[in-house]
Every structure is written in structure tokens, then in C-alpha cells.
Amino acid sequence: MVIRYSPCEYSEINQTEEIAMRFLRINEVRDRIGLGRTSIYKMVNEGTFPKPVRVLGKKVAWIDSEVDEWMMQRIADERGDAIPNLNY
């Protein structure tokens, strides 16, 4: 699914671009990053992991590209590598 997305004021990009987005539920996030629910929510509360968005009622989900960016940043921080450009 491709949607129009206008980056927020914190983005380095100041133009509208097309990107593919997908919501990830907690189990998908757990599988993707290899950490448990408690660790994920602890990092969210500490501000070190992307915050989920409310999708319906009490249901929350994470934006897949934000989780991917967090993973790439962790790799770069650990190895000192440059972060590759993720094109969505």
C-alpha cells in the first residue's frame, strides 16, 4: 500500500514524498527485533524506541520504517558504520 506522507517538522525532508507504510503489531515487532514485550515498552518509555500509534480503540501498532530505522541505528552505533539509506 502506498500513501501520501508529509513528514513532520522534525524531518530533514521538507517535501511530500511517496512511501510504503505498514503497521506492525507487538508480536511482529518482537519477532523483528528479537526482544520481548516488556523490553520494547521499557525502551518506548525511556524514549529509545519508536512510540506506537493508536490505530483503533486501545489497539496500537508501530510503523515498520521507524522500527527498521531504529535497527539500522543500533547497528551503526554498535559497529560505527554509516547508516545505509533505506528507500521505502
Q: What would your notes on this structure say?
A:
The chain has 88 residues and is an alpha+beta fold. The protein has one domain (23-88): Multidrug-efflux Transporter Regulator, Chain: A, Domain 2 (Orthogonal Bundle), CATH 1.10.1660. It has 3 helices and 5 strands. The protein has helices spanning 26-33, 37-46, 64-79, and strands at 2-5, 17-20, 23-24, 53-56, 59-63. The termini are close together.
**Uncertain regions spanning at least 5 consecutive residues:** 1-11
- Run of helices and strands: EEEHHEEH
Would you give the CATH topology?
Multidrug-efflux Transporter Regulator, Chain: A, Domain 2
Spatial strand arrangement across the major sheet:
3-5-4
Write down the domain tally.
1
Mean pLDDT: 82
Content of β-strand? 15-25%
| Name given to the CATH architecture | Orthogonal Bundle
* N- to C-terminal distance: 11 Å
What structural category characterises the helix and strand content?
alpha+beta
Report on the biggest sheet.
3 strands, antiparallel
Globular, elongated, flat, extended or rod-shaped: what is the shape? globular
Assigned CATH class: Mainly Alpha
Question: What Rg do the Cα atoms give?
Answer: 14 Å
Number of helices in the DSSP assignment: 3
